[in-house]
Amino acid sequence: MRDDDHAHRDAITLNRLILRSIVDHAIITLDMECRVTSWNEGAERLLGWTEEEAIGQSGDIFFTPEDVAKDRPEHEMRTALKEGRADDERWHMRKDGSRFWASGLMMPLLADDIESAGLDGDCEHMRGFVKIFRDRTAHEKARRRIASLEQRATLAMKRVGTVGVFEFDAAKRTLIADAVAADLHNLPRKAAETGLPLSRLFEKIHPDDVAHVKTAIERAIKNSVDLDASYRTLSDAPRPGWIHAQAAVQRNVAGRIIRLSGIAVDITEQRDITHMQEMQLSFVDEVRDMKLPIEIAELACRTIAKTLHASRAGHGYVENDGDTINIRAEWNDADSTSIIGRHHISDFGRYGEQLMCGETVVMEDTGTDPRIDDPSRLAAIQINSMVNMPLMGNGKLRAVLFVNDDRPRHWSAAELNFMRAIFDRTYAAKDRLRFEIERNLMTAELAHRMKNMLTMAQVVVTQTLRGTNDIAAARTAITARLHALSEAQDVLTRVDNREVAVREVVISALKPHLGSGDRVLFSGPTIMLNAQQVLGLALGLHELATNAAKYGALASDVGRVTIQWALDAGKFLFTWTESGGPDVSPPSSAGFGSKILNQVVGGYFEGTTKLIYDPAGLRFVLSGTC
């Protein structure tokens, strides 16, 4: 009997030593009323209460308020009684109010005379419960982060359809792929899931990339290295797709390579964006050395169309009516019809108001777009999808960039941004070129104008003194005409931005010649010009008047100049006609004045000019927009 007592005391001592040694687990005993009866050092470290503070307290103290409200402590005890154990995986509370994720269990604490208690355990023979748990907060947070990432990745893969899984069987030379990988390579899904010869894969890869992919696969198998290859795929889409394939080598128990397992990622969008960025830089480099606006415009059209694999790209100037577009630059593929020339936007569809408001018009399928009344009209010129991008100036629609495709297609935000970037850079380059031309012309014009001023002064004096005997009257007339000549120069040096009527420009530029009866006649409606157009017309009138006074109709006593202007279907027309002067013949060489009239003036009106050397009198015709 004494030996049994010693053994019992030794067992109690051993149990206490064990409990004291387990410091990374909280071991707590509870009575049947859920009051704490023992509290090891691990519980003190984990929860913060000392054994003296915890003994006699309700076990609820380390459960969260929300779990207490849901009777979780009692539920654990009932489960432990019924099942023999209750798992504990939940948030618990420390003394300082902080929370941690606990992982453990609760079990019934049996009396010494009860060897076991199953589902039908008698509560009268229970001493209470033992609860063992530890802190797994870091592990739980990591698990939740991983689960969240996996869920996001799964959703992204399913939603976007850009990541597929595949295997290459090294022995059979076959490909096994999931539905996404099959779709990315334009392979039949069912056949890909059961296995396809590698030759079927190579048939769907761009011919220029097949050798590269074959080499990458053979190198991975031969040298036991990972597969890493990017290549283009063939499809019915306007442009090829881009795939990035990565795979790891798999071996059998004997160490022999049996397969490559990996993923195929659709990188088409990334490659397209990179290519568009490269083409923007290339465009800027090329356009820097160009000297003609039409060359810049044609390069822009070609760059946009080829980069985006579109069937046509071009742009045109919009006339004052907001509907007539004069297409001067275009690039189209071999199967598309040229649409160079004048057209009416309204003939193609009901989207002109959007353009006039500065909105980009995007139509992915002109056959179903409600803004197109007659899709067959567009289909006849190979337009089944299109983008129209406006260029505004002073609140008005000035030009339109158009990009067409002969099949329905989606236009991405990146593609629209690329179009806008090239369009803006085109007009920035044209403005730069125009500035350089104007600067050079103005420098030469200053010298040329000084000569003309002296010539005009000489003509005024000569014509005034011709046939007069009244020196005082001649002096007065000469002074008045020289003053008028001075005022005419103000038109050429105007720096404000207000609009001016054509009539005002004509009167200011020709004031020195308007006192000679009906020798200068002009007529036309009220048409307002912007500051640049005023300068262009004034330059032209100055050259024409100087030439007429030196060699033409105003050099004789009976010569006459007739000036007319009008708007015809949104087009600005301006004519200068001389009659009654000396016979006219083309000059042997073109001087600076002719260069201004032939090459400069029309540009201010986005139009053209023409000098006609009619023997009966010089004629000048300006046609453009205003």
What does this structure look like?
It is a single chain. This protein is α+β, with helices and mostly antiparallel strands and 626 residues long. Helix content is 43%, strand content 26%. It folds into four domains: 141 residues, Beta-Lactamase (2-Layer Sandwich); 106 residues, Beta-Lactamase (2-Layer Sandwich); 159 residues, GAF domain (Beta-Lactamase), CATH 3.30.450.40; 158 residues, Heat Shock Protein 90 (2-Layer Sandwich). It contains 19 helices and 24 strands. A hairpin with a 5-residue loop joins strand 10 and strand 11. The chain starts with a helix and ends with a strand. About 1% of the residues have low confidence.
In short:
By secondary structure, the chain is α+β, with helices and mostly antiparallel strands. The chain has 19 helices and 24 strands. A hairpin with a 2-residue loop joins strand 21 (560-568) and strand 22.
Model regions low in confidence, pLDDT < 50 over at least 5 residues? 114-121
CATH homologous group name of the largest domain = GAF domain
Mean pLDDT comes to: 83
CA(first)-CA(last) distance:
123 Å
CATH-level-2 architecture of the largest domain: 2-Layer Sandwich
**What count of domains describes the coordinates?**
4
Strand order of the largest sheet: 8-7-6-11-10-9
